Amino acid sequence: MFLGFSCNNRCSICAQGDARSTAPSIALEEARRAIDAAEPGDVVAFTGGEPTLVDELPELVGHAAGRGAAALVQTNGRRLAYPAYVASLAAAAPSLALDVSLLGSTAAMHDYHTRTPGSFAQTAKGVRNASAKRLRVGVTVVVTRSNHRHLVDIARLARALGADAIHFAPLEAVGEALVQLHRLTPSA
Fold first, then answer.
1. Phi, psi of 142 (to 5 degrees)
2. Beta carbons within 10 angstroms of residue 164's beta carbon
3. Are strands 70-75 and 97-101 parallel, antiparallel or unpaired?
4. Rounded to whole angstroms, what are the CA distances from 178 to 14, 17, 79, 171, 174?
5. Beta-bridge partner residues of 92
6. CA–CA dist 164, 166 (Å, integer)
7. Using CA atoms in the order 131, 137, 142, 144, what is the torsion angle rounded to 10 degrees?
8. Tens digit of each residue's pLDDT (9 = 90 or more) over 41-81
9. In whole angstroms, what is the distance from residue 119 CA to residue 111 CA?
10. What burial letters (b/e) apply to 75-86, b meaning 16+ CB within 10 Å?
11. pTM for the model
């Protein structure tokens, strides 16, 4: 369930590139209708841009859970730094799963990739908050030139923050990543 291109990061690896500033968000009624088509056992994945910027996300997650579908939110984790927001998601669907993007083991490394100072601190706090609410948290790391030598450190950090799983993903040469490919591709 794509909720629009809006995002509070400006990631160098972003597949959407400049779309966040030009493309419209999905209409909420359209999202509700799509969720209405879900059947028990289906998975409804909420993606974007950054889906947590849609204020109605907890309602939509709850709607999917009410249909018997599993809910997954792909997020940069920054809004999860606010305990009340995490509580609203957990109340909407206690079995909610989160897939949080973590791009480094330090603030300098992560914030370099997000091009958003302070994003590391919010993401790390968000993973801790979600884990404390017993939500399932997976971490996805896009492997780049700047972080590929630190994957063990990133995995250790993810575990220390409370993540249940970690996924290392190859860099995809699309969107902003295509523009930045020369500085993102790991050396051989």
1. -85, 125
2. 14
3. parallel
4. 9, 9, 27, 9, 5
5. none
6. 7
7. 20
8. 999 999 999 999 999 999 999 999 999 999 999 999 999 99
9. 6
10. bbbbbbbeeebb
11. 0.92
